[in-house]
């Protein structure tokens, strides 16, 4: 083991039931570098992270820390070594202050009494070290996602972590917040902290890392210097050669309006005078910067927050949508952007999640589930959407993010809606899963479904959509046929006051 290495994985393997999550993975992370870890959903990244942090036990292999073999049997073991994980779902207590979160589990005391002035002063100092000013008494629940990320980093600094794993840290950040985070990571690197940076956003990997490791199907493919590779080479290592997205000719029937929204308003959500049409078999993109009102529009149409005024017509008939159940009855489906908290039923298995919307139709008289038909429906979903799972009884929480997203799509495919609203359908999934989800969306349209796609990935949105609405400040500022739109044109509308 080289003296430059802080951490080495040697022959790491891990199985879950009949699935090999990791097989004989070996590579090293150098001291004081930002090391990228990438791979498709299901490639084994999360499993390796959790083994490093003591959340999972490895089945085989050895972890070396500063040249010595170690057994990381728990998160406490990892913390004692100097290893911290900043999870994608940031585990902070919203009702506590920043200082209380930073010192959780390791209070500074004066005798037997917590010394809050000392902890607040130390919190300010730690934030100052990463170039940030903070009010240590502010509640964490009042913070932006970016500041929550930085609070989790400060937690790691407080515990004197030498090695910080950042798991998808930019997934919910604005470009400005990403820039701030990168400045903090580079500052930490300059001070000798080692960072493992896990991300699906390859442009960020290229911008921030020194070296990058690629996992594929639970195996180590390669570890390379970032400056010596390129995004196409990384994609090839991750998933093989993926053909570039091809914008198929629109099959939208412009003389057949399936959804018409007129003068819709919802003060609580900041929506003002929303008017648009959706045509049968159209893919309608909705673009806008964070806070533009895109998700708010989706939740209003689906009945989570019924409108204050305005009309909604489905196939020419005025409908009153007061809750999600009435939305489903009128032929609408909604794939939420918050898959983990509002989409999946994490303690349920594949078939339960895939059939949740139509479970009444799969129940025999006498409230007995028709397991034969349920298994047929769920098995067809797994096959058609190429969901990687050990079986229908596997709990969905153990699937990768991309495969969880496919199960959510299957749920709505099985419900056969007339209109399907997809909110950030490819957020947090790899390039291979993105291509697969694009294929599924186009397949939906070929079956007669009309689709509304909300996405922050403007290039992807323009590629898949037939037409794009641009929102800003809770209203629609304009629209473009996708083949006439450019990112510059869309952003010009999206940033209007």
Task: Explain this structure.
With 497 residues, the protein is of the alpha/beta class. Strands 6-9-10-3-11-12 form a six-stranded mixed β-sheet, with helices on both faces. Helix 13 crosses helix 14. The chain is globular, with a radius of gyration of 24 Å. The model has no long low-confidence stretch (mean pLDDT 85).
Name some characteristics of this structure.
single chain, alpha/beta, 17 helices, 33% helix, 28% strand
State the gist of this model.
The chain is an alpha/beta fold and 497 residues long. It has 17 helices and 24 strands. It has a 6-stranded mixed β-sheet with strand order 6-9-10-3-11-12, sandwiched between helices.
Give Rg in angstroms.
24 Å
Proportion of residues in helical segments: 25-40%
Compute the separation of the termini in Å: 57 Å
Biggest sheet: strand arrangement: 6-9-10-3-11-12
Structural class, from secondary structure content? alpha/beta
Strand content: 25-35%
Query: Which regions contain 5 or more consecutive residues with pLDDT less than 50?
Result: none
How many beta strands in the DSSP annotation?
24
Report the major sheet.
6 strands, mixed
The overall average pLDDT, rounded, is 85
Q: Count the DSSP helices.
A: 17
From the spread of the alpha carbons, the general shape counts as globular
């Amino acid at each position: 083991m080289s003296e430059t290495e802080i951490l080495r994985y040697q022959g790491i393997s891990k199985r879950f039931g009949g699935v090999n999550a990791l097989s004989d993975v070996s590579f090293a992370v150098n001291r004081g570098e930002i090391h990228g870890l990438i791979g498709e959903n299901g490639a084994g990244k999360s499993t390796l992270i959790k083994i490093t942090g003591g959340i999972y036990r490895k089945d085989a292999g050895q972890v070396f820390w500063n040249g010595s073999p170690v057994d990381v049997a728990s998160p406490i073991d990892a913390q004692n070594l100097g290893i911290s994980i900043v999870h994608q779902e940031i585990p902070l207590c919203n009702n506590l202050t920043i200082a209380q979160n930073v010192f959780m589990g390791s209070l500074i005391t004066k005798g037997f009494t917590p010394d809050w002035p000392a902890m607040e002063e130390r919190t300010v100092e730690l934030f100052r070290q990463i170039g940030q000013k903070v009010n240590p008494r502010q509640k964490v629940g009042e913070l932006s996602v970016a500041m929550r990320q930085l609070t989790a980093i400060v937690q790691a600094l407080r515990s004197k972590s030498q090695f910080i794993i950042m798991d998808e840290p930019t997934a919910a950040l604005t470009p400005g917040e990403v820039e701030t985070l990168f400045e903090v990571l580079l500052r930490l690197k300059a001070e000798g902290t080692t960072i493992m940076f896990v991300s699906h956003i390859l442009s960020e990997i290229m911008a921030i890392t020194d070296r990058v490791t690629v996992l594929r199907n639970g195996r180590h493919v390669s570890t390379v210097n970032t400056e010596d590779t390129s995004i196409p080479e990384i994609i090839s290592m991750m998933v093989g050669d993926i053909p570039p997205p091809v914008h198929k000719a629109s099959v939208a029937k412009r003389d057949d309006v399936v959804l018409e929204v007129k003068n819709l308003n919802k003060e609580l959500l900041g929506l003002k005078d929303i008017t648009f049409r959706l045509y049968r078999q159209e893919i309608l993109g909705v673009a806008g910067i964070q806070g533009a009102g895109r998700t708010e529009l989706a939740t209003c149409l689906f009945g989570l927050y019924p409108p204050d005024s305005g009309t909604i017509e489905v196939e020419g008939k005025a409908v009153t949508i007061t809750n999600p159940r009435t939305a489903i009855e009128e032929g609408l489906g909604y794939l939420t952007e918050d898959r983990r908290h509002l989409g999946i039923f994490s303690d349920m298995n594949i078939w339960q999640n895939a059939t949740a919307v139509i479970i009444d139709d799969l129940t025999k008289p006498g409230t007995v589930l028709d397991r034969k038909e349920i298994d047929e429906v769920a098995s067809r979903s797994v096959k058609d959407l190429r969901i990687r799972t050990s079986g229908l009884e596997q709990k969905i929480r153990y699937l990768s993010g991309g495969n969880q997203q496919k199960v959510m799509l299957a749920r709505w495919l099985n419900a056969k809606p007339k209109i399907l609203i997809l909110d950030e359908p490819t957020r947090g999934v790899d390039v291979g899963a993105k291509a697969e989800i694009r294929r599924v969306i186009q397949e939906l349209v070929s079956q007669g479904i009309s689709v509304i796609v909300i996405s922050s990935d403007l290039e992807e949105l323009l590629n898949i959509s037939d037409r794009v609405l641009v929102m800003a400040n809770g209203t629609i500022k304009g629209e473009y046929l996708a083949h006439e739109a450019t990112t510059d044109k869309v952003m010009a509308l999206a940033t209007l006051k």
